[in-house]
Amino acid sequence: MAESLNGLRDRITGELRWDPVTRSLYAAGACLYRVLPSAVLWPMEREDVVEAMELASREGIPVTARGGGTSRTGNELGEGLVIDFSLHMNRILELDPQARLVRVEPGVVLADLNELLKPHGLFFPPDPSTKDHCTIGGMIANNSSGPMSVKYGTTRAYVEWVEMVLSNGETIRTGPGRVGETGALGKRERTIYGVVADVIGRYRQALTEERPAATKDSSGYHLWEVERSDGLLDLTPMVVGSEG
User: Fold this and answer.
1) Domain extents for the chain?
2) 92-158 maps to which CATH number?
3) Is the pLDDT of residue 124 over 90?
4) Is the pTM of this model over 0.85?
């Protein structure tokens, strides 16, 4: 694996380490568990993640995305490659106060985001107790909530779309209408849409009947919200809260 990691390090702009000290530091988080990773990557840009996922796909290396490391259930830990987005990919890319839209990288800390939004009379409502440390990427992964979610809803209610790198290095953007642009879809993305459409078609009644009556749900993939009223599929609800 060292040879492959050396090759990856030459192709990225971020940092990649697999020394014993780094691995030991990333073997722990806010949880009680301890899992020693093989290596840790701090990407600077999306292309670094693409390179890492392509290598992981070829070599059969498991990958764990990590934000603030605040999960109490061990979701920040993994035996393979840990990708820590909090160090470099923590930029707020765009803010449109009138449209109430903000575009961020996954490593942005919730408290920092709300500090930026405050002068505009806006805020990101989900407020977990770890708000000074947790990242938006992690909040999307587990559909974070908090005391104010009783009134305002969980993270899922505030995510318009997600740009993400698939296991084979393919980059996709979720959101309404993407399924109709079949010519623009990559091979893995077409497969995902095809499988999801088939599952929804075959189990539509069961999905409706068995939908959990809960305001906060981080289990499953919210397939009952993927099919829109206009018949198009939007993978965003499936991605939010998909960590387990």
Assistant:
1) 2-84, 92-158, 163-239
2) 3.30.465.10
3) yes
4) yes
